[in-house]
Every structure is written in C-alpha cells, then in structure tokens.
From TrEMBL:
<comment type="pathway">
    <text>tRNA modification.</text>
</comment>
<keyword id="KW-0819">tRNA processing</keyword>
<dbReference type="GO" id="GO:0005737">
    <property type="term" value="C:cytoplasm"/>
</dbReference>
<dbReference type="InterPro" id="IPR035107">
    <property type="entry name" value="tRNA_thiolation_TtcA_Ctu1"/>
</dbReference>
<dbReference type="GO" id="GO:0051539">
    <property type="term" value="F:4 iron, 4 sulfur cluster binding"/>
</dbReference>
<comment type="subunit">
    <text>Homodimer.</text>
</comment>
<keyword id="KW-0411">Iron-sulfur</keyword>
<keyword id="KW-0067">ATP-binding</keyword>
<feature type="region of interest" description="Disordered">
    <location>
        <begin position="273"/>
        <end position="297"/>
    </location>
</feature>
<dbReference type="Pfam" id="PF01171">
    <property type="entry name" value="ATP_bind_3"/>
</dbReference>
<feature type="binding site">
    <location>
        <position position="213"/>
    </location>
    <ligand>
        <name>[4Fe-4S] cluster</name>
    </ligand>
</feature>
<protein>
    <recommendedName>
        <fullName>tRNA-cytidine(32) 2-sulfurtransferase</fullName>
        <ecNumber>2.8.1.-</ecNumber>
    </recommendedName>
</protein>
<dbReference type="GO" id="GO:0034227">
    <property type="term" value="P:tRNA thio-modification"/>
</dbReference>
<keyword id="KW-0694">RNA-binding</keyword>
<keyword id="KW-0808">Transferase</keyword>
<feature type="binding site">
    <location>
        <position position="125"/>
    </location>
    <ligand>
        <name>[4Fe-4S] cluster</name>
    </ligand>
</feature>
<keyword id="KW-0408">Iron</keyword>
Length: 297
C-alpha cells in the first residue's frame, strides 16, 4: 500500500514521538536510581526478544548523547535450545559495530536432564542463566548488568509475590546481584510494554521467538497479566496508579517491624497535619492527579 505524503508525515511524527517518550522514560529511570555513572561498562543482556533489543537501542542512543561517558558491551547467552538461530544476533551486532560477546552454554540439556517431563523448567533455567551472566560480567569487566524488564513486568511481579508468595515485593530497578558482586539495573523500568512493541516493529529488530525451549508460559503470570489488562479496560489508568504506588510507600502504615520501629513508638506531642487520621473514614483522591512520570510530549 502506498502512503500519501500526509500519511508519511503523520507516521514520521508518531515515530518521533514514540522515540522521544522511550528515551525520556529510560533517561528518567537511569537518573532517578543513579543506574549509570561516568566510566561504567554496562553489559546489556540481549535475549533476542523485543524488550532487550529496545533496551540496547535506547542505551546506545543515550551513550552517544549523555553528558557522561560510559561503555556498552552486548552479551547474548546461547543456551543451545533446539532451533535457536545462532547467526541472527552476531550478524545484527556486527552491523551495529559495537563490542559484543556470545556465550555458548548448553543450559538447555541440563534443564532437560534435571526437570521431569511436564514440570516447569523456567526457574532452574533462569537460575543457571543468571549464574552464567554474572560470571561473564566479571570476565568482561562490566560494572553494571542491564536487564530488559519494563513496567508491566514490575507490576506483574508485584502481584505474583502478593498473591502467590505472600510478600509485598516487586522487581527493583537497581539491585546488588545475589552473589554480592554485581549491580544489576533495569533501564526500561518506566517504559510501557506497548511502546517497546511498537518500537521493535518500527526498527524491524530481528526478533527471536522465546518459546524455543518448548516451555509453557508461567500460568500464574498469565493470570496476573490478564487480571491487569481487564482492570485497565474497566478502570482506565489503574495500572498507572499501581505503578506509582510502588514509589510511595509508608512503612509506618504497613506491618513490618523490620521497616518501622513500632515497638518503641511513643507520642512526641508534635502535631502532624499530614499524619494519620485513625478515627476518620478514608477518603482517597485519585493519585493519578499527580502522575509520577510526565506522559505528554
Ligand atoms: S521459557 Fe524456556 S528459555 Fe525461557 S526461562 Fe523458561 S525454560 Fe528458560
């Protein structure tokens, strides 16, 4: 189909707006959590999915435009899944002319050997992958490990932990790895999944399907995703409110004595106009009136 000049202008305008929104979200997340500092060598984990391609693309833009100097090295772990098109990522990365490393480790066979047929393989597979990536980060001298999780992943993880793990816990934008040796960052923490999907299409990233291992998508995550999509249809803006709530926590109004010293709490005689109104009915203004992130261009 041939587009008219007006349609082409409109498409260019929309693509430009999308690029700006994604770059702004990444820049803001990096700034808010001090994810990248001058002199960092950032290992960008590239799985071949739309999110990791987007992350690499956005970080490369930032590397070339940020006021600080940092390096990027892209890393893919070839887990030897049957049908994995091993030539796709090296060809793409060579085309970008950036440093990269493909780590070949047959974690697929280990998972197949250790997990009985029909059981979920993802948790062992991810654990093995994590171990390999931490080792590679050390070998490459990376100071940060960047993962391509976005805001929907964060909200979904929050509900998975709440419903199935009995914990108030999401997916942090920055953390120290469980071996204590690396700082892991999630520069896409503020990005919308739909934006990343649209960007992947526009950029025509050579996406590698993520179901090569034959594993079913985690059923609990699927249910949570569906619940959030239904909510957003019925109550537009709800997931935005939920996401914002993750940055506005009041430990004194939860029940974790490790976070708030309830035991030694005493009246201090100082009135607090914004404090608790224990005897008043709750009245909740929509937190959406103060969006945490600017959404307009
Ligand atoms: S979907 Fe397959 S490759 Fe991905 S974590 Fe699960 S088992 Fe591993």
């Amino acid at each position: 189909m041939t587009l008219t000049a007006h349609q082409q202008d409109k498409e260019r305008y929309e693509a430009n707006k999308l690029a700006k929104r994604l770059r702004r979200c990444v820049g803001q997340a990096i700034g808010d959590f001090n994810m990248i500092e001058a002199g960092d060598r950032v290992m960008v984990c590239l799985s071949g999915g739309k999110d990791s391609f987007g992350m690499l693309d956005l970080l490369l833009y930032l590397r070339d435009h940020a006021p600080i100097q940092f390096d990027i090295v892209a890393v893919n772990l070839d887990q030897k899944q049957p049908g994995f098109p091993a030539e796709v990522l090296p060809a793409y990365l060579k085309g970008l002319n950036i440093p990269f490393h493909i780590e070949e480790q047959d974690t697929y066979s280990i998972v197949k050997r250790l997990i009985p047929e029909g059981k979920t393989t993802c948790s062992l597979c991810s654990r093995l992958r994590r171990g390999v990536l931490y080792r590679v980060a050390g070998e490459l001298g990376a100071t940060k490990i960047a993962l391509g999780h976005h805001r929907s992943d964060i909200i979904e993880t929050f509900f998975l932990n709440l419903f199935f793990g009995g914990k108030l816990k999401a997916m942090p934008p920055k953390l120290v790895s469980d071996d204590g040796r690396h700082v892991v960052i999630r520069p896409l923490a503020y990005c919308f999944e739909d934006d990343l999907g649209a960007w992947a299409e526009l950029q025509q990233f050579p996406i590698i399907p993520c179901d090569l291992c034959g594993s079913q998508e985690n059923l609990q995550r699927k249910q949570v995703k569906q619940m959030l999509q239904d909510w957003d249809k019925r109550f537009p803006g709800r997931s935005k409110t939920l996401f914002n709530a993750l940055s506005r926590i009041t430990p004194s109004h939860l029940m974790d004595p490790a976070l708030f010293d309830f035991r030694n709490l005493v009246a201090n005689g100082v009135p607090d106009p914004d404090g608790d109104r224990a005897f008043d009915p709750e009245s909740l203004a929509s937190p959406d009136v103060i969006p945490l992130l600017p959404e307009e261009d």
